[in-house]
Each structure stands twice: as structure tokens, then as C-alpha cells.
Amino acid sequence: MSSSVRNMEEKMIQSMQKRTGRTLEQWLEKAKRDGIPEGKGRLKWLKEEYGLGQSTAYLILNHLDGGSLASRRV
């Protein structure tokens, strides 16, 4: 994957607390603790329940699944 995607992802992670009130690690802990819907409902849940943007929600979900945006195949 290109370094530009990795750079974008790193910038999103670094600014996540300022933008959302939580770090990536805190989002991952919250999702694991509170439970998160399965399947396609996961993205909708993060966006509607917490007002997250699509890119931020995808980033959280990819890390929750053990990956990253940079490792995701498009």
C-alpha cells in the first residue's frame, strides 16, 4: 500500500482524540467493552451512535479487526 495512505492513517490517529474526544485505543476498548453490532451494522452504529465520520469509523473498525486502512484491499 502506498505511503500516502499510511501517512493519512497516522494523521487521523494522531488527531483522533481532538476530533472525537477519544484516542484510537480508547475507541477500541469501548467497542470491545460495550459490544458492537456484527456485519454492516457496525459502520452505521459508530456513525449514528457517536457522530463519527465515515473515514474515522472505518479506521476504528479496521483496527478492531486487527488491520489498518493501509492494509485494507480496495
TrEMBL record:
Enumerate the InterPro entries for this protein: DUF4287 (IPR025629)
Protein origin, superkingdom:
Bacteria
The record's Pfam families line, in alphabetical order, gives: DUF4287
* Protein name, per record: DUF4287 domain-containing protein
